[in-house]
Amino acid sequence: MSELSVNHLLGIKYLQKEDIELIFQTADHFKEVINRPIKKVPSLRDITIANLFFENSTRTRLSFELAEKRLSADVINFSAASSSVKKGETLIDTVSNILSMKVDMVVMRHPNPGAGIFLSRHVNASIVNAGDGAHEHPTQALLDSYSIREKLGGVEGKKVVIVGDILHSRVALSNIFALKLQGAQVKVCGPKTLIPKYIESLGVEVEPNLRKALEWCDVANMLRVQNERMDISYFPSTREYIQLFGLNKAMLDSLSKKIVIMHPGPINRGVEITSDVADSDQAIILDQVQNGVAVRMAVIYLLASKIKQ
Predict the structure, then answer these.
(1) Which of 61, 109, 158, 263 is labelled catalytic?
(2) CATH number of the domain at 138-288, out of 1.20.1200.10, 3.90.1150.10, 3.40.50.1370, 3.40.50.360?
(3) Among 16, 237, 282, 309, which residue's CB has the most CB atoms within a 10 Å radius?
(4) Are 15 and 299 in contact (CB under 8 A)?
């Protein structure tokens, strides 16, 4: 397979296994590039990309911007907080105005699920979903799978547990789609109130006991509790959450095997994982960040090569 089967990256659920393979092979190449003394390639010199962030983001926005600049694209950054959106401008108007500046690709994060899909039907540009509400965050899932592949030699057959706030997590949903597509076994673990009712229909098992989940898995992906998305209290207290679902070094060291620890960030140190776990040699959190740039370069490059045709 030499090109993606899609014209946009709206969610993992629209990708085929071959698409993921192609993205990873391309990311391997770009990872080599970003470790060179001169980290830039002229691949997208004639492509203009707009980053539209209607929600706060540090790592994802910086990662995309760095990926775009490494590929020599022209980059426009748009932050909703300081824009006419505050004056009541609609999403289509905002984007149409930006596209009239001859933009080829839009990377968008939006609080509403499906915003990217909506946009892809109404504007003539390639859309990359950088997170839509609690729905999907495809590039995060891709970089997570890529990091597992790099650390363990592959994703197929691996046992991955996703721990924490599954209900509000677009990272969890995209990861489940990506891992299942590549043949991994997936379990989720967290407070009952934070596990969606439909979860088992995705081919995922629920393991309520953290220790049992960790003894079972090869990889534990520890999610942040998303207080900003919670309109009610889903568990009695942070202290209780830490006791039941927080991972500390003593528990990690007491397991019968060495497992890989991942976290999409930002980390609430001392809540989902303690500092000594985050900084341990079993954690690949900083590898995930570095891989994020290579994977996003791959996605942008592959989508842009379809625009040029």
Answers:
(1) 109
(2) 3.40.50.1370
(3) 282
(4) no
Q: What whole-number distance in Å separates Cα of residue 219 and Cα of residue 158?
A: 8
**Consecutive H or E run containing 240:** helix 238-245
Give the pLDDT confidence of 109-144 residue by residue, as tens digits: 999 999 999 999 988 899 999 999 989 999 999 999
Q: Where are the domains of the chain?
A: 12-136+291-307, 138-288
pLDDT in tens, 20-39: 999 999 999 999 999 999 99
Taking the alpha carbons at both ends of the chain, their separation in whole angstroms is 16
Beta-carbon neighbour count of residue 156 at 10 Å? 12
For 12-136+291-307, CATH gives 3.40.50.1370
pLDDT, mean of residues 261-266: 94
Is 60 catalytic? The answer is: yes
Contact 50, 60 (CB under 8 A): no
Q: Does residue 137 have an active-site annotation?
A: yes
Would residue 135 show up in a list of annotated catalytic residues for this protein? no
